[in-house]
Amino acid sequence: MILLNGQVDNRINIADRGLHYGDGLFETMAYRHGRVELLTEHLNRLAQGCERLAIPYPGDTVLQSDIKQLSASLTADAVIKIIVTRGQGGRGYRTATNSQPTRIISNHALPNYPQSHTLGIRARLCQQTLSENSSLAGIKHLNRLEQVLARQEWDDDAISEGLMFDQHQYLIEGVMSNVFVVRDNVLLTPKLDRSGVAGIMRSKVMECADKLSIECRQTQLSLADLKCADEVFITNSIIIVWPIIQIDNVAEYVHGDITEKTQSALMEMI
Description:
Low-confidence stretches: none
Mean pLDDT: 96
CATH superfamily of the largest domain: D-amino Acid Aminotransferase, subunit A, domain 2
Radius of gyration: 19 Å
Helix content: 25-40%
CATH class of the largest domain: Alpha Beta
Distance between the termini: 25 Å
Number of helices: 7
Shape: globular
Order of helices and strands: EEHEEHHEEEHEEEEHEHEEEH
């Protein structure tokens, strides 16, 4: 099902700025066991993103009503996606002062990932870099062409994720995930003040670390840091946590103690 501004519809106006300029944001949420996981956190991030882009936020009540309507038709676990664009506007970059945001809520089949991914996956290093832009860093905006180009770099089903760096060769994130590195029992994750998406599950991992008394730092990480890591894992709202056990031609890792503790703590939290 697709809801367009609260109505069942799959036709967007050709003048919508989301189509013309990627002028909007999105959230991808897991619907499992009859509920949307971490809904409050996702709506909060969407509201913050709207504020940063000066897009009127539709409001929690409106979005929750849309989600309730859509989820009533679901009979299995699914992915629910929210898209909010600035709405319709004429040709040109200047935004209209009276535009009304467009909201699109849709459901999709939950990816059928192998259960073994929770024990470890293979990853690769992407050649495509992430642009540096502090104005957009952290938010989940609609401009995802860098990730599209990065994902085109491989077609090997044995590789489950690609790791992306910025132009300064600092690790930022995975194509679809955030990245954590464990070294000497300290949990490290890239700073996202210049690029990348501040994931909901990323923030939950940092909460878990605090509860587990694991030191966690946001810092700059290089390829050298990856090579000397004890554990590496990735996160997002759908997969939750996948340990990386091999980065092709770079390093191999164990499914270690901190990763296991984090996985267990997250399952209790969400």
